[in-house]
Design brief:
Strand order of the largest sheet: 1-2
Radius of gyration: 17 Å
Strand content: 5-15%
Largest sheet: 2 strands, antiparallel
Shape: elongated
Structural class: mainly alpha
Number of strands: 2
Number of helices: 3
Order of helices and strands: HEEHH
Helix content: 55-70%
């Protein structure tokens, strides 16, 4: 398997907006976080397919499922927060 010649951040550069505060905290929108988690899940899924050992494949499958579950949890939390906000009408 050929290793990528560019850093991971280039995969999301320009696609995900972040805000960094003076104290170093990084803020990202829930939608962008979900995009990032879904992309990481896709990458983990590709690693499962070319795993050199069954245990590695099992670990990557667990990681992939964790990314997907976290993305779904963020989406659900966002929906819940939006439903609590007063209507703009």
């Amino acid at each position: 398997m050929k290793r990528s010649s560019f850093p991971f951040h280039k995969l999301v550069q320009g696609k995900i907006q972040t805000t960094t505060t003076l104290d170093g905290e990084i803020y990202i929108s829930s939608g962008d976080l979900c995009k990032l988690l879904e992309h990481m899940g896709t990458v983990a899924g590709r690693l499962v397919k070319c795993a050199p050992h069954p245990l590695f494949a099992m670990q990557m499958e667990t990681i992939k499922n964790t990314f997907e579950a976290t993305s779904e949890a963020v989406k659900a939390s966002t929906r819940d927060e939006k439903s609590k906000q007063p209507s703009a009408n």
